[in-house]
Fold each of these.
Amino acid sequence: MIKDLIVNLSLGDKSDPTADFAISTANLLNAHVTAVSFVYEAIIPALELMPIPADLIEMQREESERLAANAANRFAEAARRSSVSAETRQLDETLAGAPETFARAARRFDLSVVSQPRPESPGNDTLFVESALFSSGRPVLVVPYIQRSGLTLDRVLICWDGSRTAARAIADALPLLQRAKTTEIVTVSDGSPALNEIPGTDIARHLARHGLNIELRRLVAGDVDTANIILSHAADTAADLIVMGGYGHSRLREFILGGVTRGLLTSMTVPTLMSH
């Protein structure tokens, strides 16, 4: 069951699609949602030779507090209007330390909700996704920054390649899959003939035993990369949610997103639940 969510709030003065989506998800699941807004420490350039005036540092701090408070207030009001059980937390952190702090907090929740990296600030947004995916031990729901509607589950698309992470994602998403009208399992091949049965048949049987309405589809990549094949099919079939394993590898204690995961995050237009 998914009964306890955590969401990272955007600190801009505009609307926050990720916060709104987290509220709609909690509403659908009758769950509680905790919203985190970070108050960032002042950023002092490493090569600055002259002392930074104390009042300038204080101004940065006050502006960060204002943005965090505004984000929390917007969220609280939206949750109240939706009659969703919710709370807000403001945490002091550095810009670099916030993603890992969020990931540690997410370990105590069933699901974390974060935003797709935005073009204007891809670095820190990407770190929030990576940290939640690889360090929390929990599934992550990534919301497109262009998302306008709440969570619906008319059609869910599962990306299946037989891997451990894909199996984990399916298990984590089961409370959502059980509410879906149709669940489509998609495999992507290079066009070579299958050796035995259609890939995905076994997992389709497994999910059918859970009472899910299952469809199975094999896509051929050809000259198109896997991420774009999946996103194109999701658009063609009007999928409401994508479920997939989150891939990556470690390099000097840093996690590097795999090609398909990175490609989906860059171009995604559909909310995506990832697990690692």
Amino acid sequence: MVNEIDSVGLQERIAAGEDICLVDIRTPAEIVQAAIPNALFLPMHLLPLRMNELPRDKEVVLYCRSGARSYHACLYLAQQGFDNAVNLRGGIIAWARHGFAIEPGRLA
């Protein structure tokens, strides 16, 4: 089972100043088009190699374009012992539809 949050809930928590690690798992080509501000860029295919960069002491919210890939990434992290991974339901598409902040993505 994967924990999920919707765009409205995530925006409320970010606005309230909650300490959340937001992770964009899309490809570099997708990221440069638009991204949610302050996200860590960790393409899904690199997750097994770089999951040690993710904190275990706070919530890690993963997102992709529609929420499908990040759902599977959350499943993978749960199998690796992460109990703090949360999927952004609807991905950046739902986030942008609600009019929440997006910016041109930076890969560095």
Amino acid sequence: MRTAVIGGGIAGLAAAFELEKARAGDAAVEYTLFETGPRVGGSLASELVDGIVLERGPDSFLTEKPSAIELCRELGLENDLVGSNDAARKTYIVVHNRMVALPDGLMFLVPTKLIPTALTPLFSIATKARMALELLHPPRPSQNEDESVASLVGRHFGPEAVDRLADPLLSGIYGGDAAQLSARTVLPRLVEMESQYGSLTRGMLAAHRKMHAKAPANGAGQSKRAPRPIFTTLRGGLQQMIDAVANRLNPESVRLSTAVSALEKLPNGWKVYSQGAAEFYDAVIVASAAWSAGVLLGPVDPLLGEELGGIPYSSSITVNLVYDETKLNNLPDGFGFLIPASEGRAMLACTFVHRKFLGRTPPGKAVFRAFLGGMKNEALLTETDAKLVATVRRELKEILGIQAEPEHTQVSRWRRAMAQYAVGHQERQKRIAARVANLPGLRLAGNAYDGIGIPDCIRLGRRAAKELLAETVAIEV
């Protein structure tokens, strides 16, 4: 079986890794990984600067989703896995230039502790009263129609909770807008809780009790297992994972700086056009962004191309700033802060990297990692690096009082890199799956379909390769 993998981001790399494993045991398995750029890895890119690990794109992945950790273990990187410093985890919301800590007992978007919620300056008295009365919400029958996250959260906790909680939290994850993101896709647990309990607070408390009831008892002689860190990364940066996968692949099977210009469906396979030549493949895994996949697949299936092209994307900018820690004012405890869109700032969020992951920054150095862009401020991508750094420095001065000159700065732009799970996303995915099912030998992988994070992309890439390999075995049998 000859398979073309189009796109060398982490999803495409994961698919190629699975195919390489099969090739090692079966000479009949061949693959080619096509990557438009000069390197593989997509937005996963790390640099080491004076002993400091700087991430240009994502800095970690969720520990509870196993695919990334499993891949790292297969690559021999288990000893380099680093968990987040959750003992120091504290997140702030910026309100009128003031850092306000998220109240204790907040489970994602749902307040579950009365006193901390009542005392926090994050919300007005009217919003706090609404949060208390939310306990009285009756169960809501399952709805056939999807709605936005803003609609769901606003119905329960009011518009201020959307502005100061839902929007900044989700903007930090998706770079998106709570008024556009699908509640059914992004917050499926809350949708289920509303249907069963009515009150999201009661639903979250019930889920918390069930989780503790299922936890194994700490009997005599048993050591209590430490909780898993929320986030995991690699000691040398996520580039370690990219390099390790790339080193496992057959060098002759990887084509960098090689764009695929067209795809053609044949009765017995696919023709892949690249650099003026056409090659036959039995199967194709399209692991590029959905908008790019739509361009390639539109001539094959116009409806599929239209659906893929209809998935919205946001762009983002990361700005890393390295400081001499002794020249900073007293920095608040915690991992960093989020900024609501209503604050009118360029920054969406800022992470205190040296606090989040210990051991990746030398003593005496502080690293700030600012995020800009998102759905509401794409125009920032046209600004110069100097202008973006100056903007971040000005906002850090206004929020944290930092006036020191950074020792090093780094700006990275990621155009149309983050898929947005807009209202109706699940229905769109069903339509896409139905069209793909009618095109034998085709699979799609990436962050536009069933999970936005690194583990999801790895899972989807490896699954695509496994499914195609299994189909080949079934045909041969």
